Amino acid sequence: MKYDVIVVGAGPAGAMAAKYAAQNGAKTLLIEEHASIGSPVQCTGLISTKALYECEVGEGIFVLSKIRGAFVYSPCGEEVCVRGKDIKAYVIDRKIFDRVLVENAVDKGVDVLLRTRFIGMDKGKISVISNGEKKEIEGNFIIGADGIQSSVGRAASLPRCEKFLSGIQFEAPYIPKDPEYVEIFTGNEIAPGFFGWAVPFSGMARIGLAKNPGLPARYHLEKLLKHPIVSSRYRGGRTEHVVGGIPLGPPRKTATDRVLLVGDAAGQVKPTSGGGVYMGAVCAKIAGEVAAKTSRGECGLVDYEKKWRRAVGRELDIGMQIHKSLGKLSDENLNEFVAFLNKPDIRELMTEYGDMDHPSVFMQKLIMSGNKMQLIKLFGVAVRTLF
Predict the structure, then answer these.
(1) Number of H helices, E strands in the chain
(2) Please, what is the average pLDDT of the chain?
(3) DSSP of 85-134, one letter per residue?
(4) Looking at domain 2-44+94-160+251-319, does it have CATH number 3.50.50.60?
């Protein structure tokens, strides 16, 4: 088997990279180590409207519910309602979603191999274990879309991401305050350095959290389930249990020789929310096109680094600064911050400019509104890294 481009990992980023490589004229192979596309699920399954657009799909059968906003709870229990003027996000079935993306790639001529695990590469070939048998596949360029532990990245000696969060989630019967609103829970007891969530759909919710390294995520999950809001709405039982990691902060280099990294493997994940589908899709399309054109000598892999950082690098950098600053706040500071967000003029700004894919837009409007000094006073030392 000989290909111009081999994509390792058939998640959204891998599927989009393969699709764009193929439609730019490259003979493309997409390999996936698991027996079926989309399994196992390691995602909250909440994606923005922009993510659907970037993935070039509409509101398909994978959409379980529509989300207009969020209720954010401070450690002391104060509630902030973040309202959207229209639909902001979708709760999706990731298994079906991933399969739709792979089907779209196949329609462009991509070959797919399941039960095929990447184990190494050397001199224009990759080694795989496919259906229990070791094989070698020739490929001019390799795109690593194989997630947080990227075997492709390790084989190419590319650096790792700046930081990793640990996450945990399950599904259960749940009665939300409003089925069109996600619930967000802050506090260092529940989710140090990040937040917990309840994402409602069809009488159920995905309940979980992500956190800084430290005590096991399961310990904090039990704290979340005892939260007054969650405990009053959670109806018991646990299904679809998921444990995983979230990479934050792209490494300084995501391309070398014949290899590109994309999606979680490249840390192309929003540091403010942990979502990776939107950023991954944007960068995957660049990766596929660059790999295809490089195979014909029309550009070089260095163009991938330049183009994806030009597209989303600034947003990821700002998001990482916001993440680091919020992660330094004590529960008392978080209470003050949520109270600040609850001011009528700030809520209006969030409604008008809130964007889960581009939080820098809201931050800029917040600063321009005359609240810069109040923000600095509120956050203290932690917020100074933002300005």
Answers:
(1) 13, 18
(2) 92
(3) SS--EEEE-HHHHHHHHHHHHHHTT-EEESSEEEEEEETTEEEEEETTEE
(4) yes
Give the separation between CA 43 and CA 66, rounded to whole angstroms.
Answer: 17
Structure tokens at 295: 């195979």
Dist. CA 109–CA 104, nearest whole Å: 9
Against a cut of 0.85, is the pTM above it? yes
Distance, CA of 337 to chain centre: 25
Q: Where are the beta strands (DSSP E) in the chain?
A: 2-8, 28-31, 46-48, 63-67, 69-73, 79-83, 89-92, 111-113, 116-122, 125-130, 133-144, 163-173, 181-185, 195-201, 204-211, 239-248, 255-256, 259-261
Closest CA to 224 of 238, 201, 207: 207
What value, to the nearest 5°, has the Cα angle with vertex 170 and ends 168 and 175? 125
Q: Which residue has the tokens 């190419």?
A: 156
354 or 66: whose pLDDT is higher? 66
Per-domain boundaries in the chain: 2-44+94-160+251-319, 66-88+163-247, 321-386
User: pLDDT by residue (tens digit) across 237-286?
Assistant: 999 899 999 999 999 999 998 999 999 999 999 999 999 999 999 999 99
Question: Can you give the length of the chain in residues?
Answer: 387
Q: Residue 321 carries which DSSP code?
A: H
Given 3.30.565.10, 3.30.9.10, 3.90.70.10, 3.40.50.700, which CATH number is that of 66-88+163-247? 3.30.9.10
Comparing 2-44+94-160+251-319 with 66-88+163-247, is the CATH topology the same? Answer: no
| Largest pairwise CA distance in the chain | 64
